[in-house]
Amino acid sequence: MNGLIDRSIETGRLTLVPLRASHAEEMAAVLSDPDLYVFIGGEPPTETALRARYERLAAGSPDPGVAWGNWVIRLKDEGCLTGTVQATVSGDTAEIAWVVGTPWQRRGIAREAASAMKDRLLTLGVRTVIAHIHPGHTASAAVAGGIGLAPTDRWQDGEVRWEGLPVRKPF
After folding, report:
1. How many CB atoms lie within 10 A of CB 151?
2. CB of 73 within 8 A of CB of 11?
3. Structural class in CATH, domain 2-164
4. pTM value?
5. Where are the domains of the chain?
């Protein structure tokens, strides 16, 4: 499965590029706004911390039954990175997440990237997609709903579990 997860994904406006440590410098700037962490906690990472994290993620899951997919989002027209999407795949279930830097929000980038990632996961045999979203994070809830996920009555660490088998939607 990792071979297909490690490939780029193209949409009309975006290229999802497999995450590498070399993305840390640009991504540290993308993720530098403290407002990005209001719902997810934490604070903007330093380039050094991000590089170390990206090295671990790019190496893949140490569990042979789990595959990690991590991509940076490149906006083709502007030629810059705008955020990340990620998936943790176990069996036929994927837990996904996304973050888009503040300057690029409200442009449909997160939904387009999450949808493209979800479509790739479906080709790999994923049957259930899950996201955990803070109940006050209306933007992330809109992304989840936009790719076919629905909130459940299940909670984890103060976040609502969204779940579904999204329908493919071309861009």
Report:
1. 16
2. no
3. alpha beta
4. 0.92
5. 2-164
pLDDT tens per residue across span 52-111: 999 999 999 999 999 999 999 999 999 999 999 999 999 999 999 999 999 999 999 999
Q: What are phi and psi of 58, to 5 degrees?
A: -65, -25
Secondary structure (H, E, C), 49-90: HHHHHHHHHHHCCCCCCEEEEEEEEEECCCCEEEEEEEEEEE
Per the DSSP assignment, residues forming a β-bridge with 103 are none
- Per-residue burial over 77-102, b = 16 or more CB atoms within 10 Å of its CB, e = otherwise: eeeebbbbbbbbbeeeebbbbbbbbe
Count other Cβ atoms within 10 Å, centred on residue 162. 23
Tokens standing for residue 99: 């973050």
Q: What is the dihedral of CA 37, 150, 93, 10, to 10 degrees?
A: -70
CA atoms of 11 and 31, how far apart (whole Å): 22
Strand, coil or helix: what is 133? strand
Residue with tokens 């660490």: 157
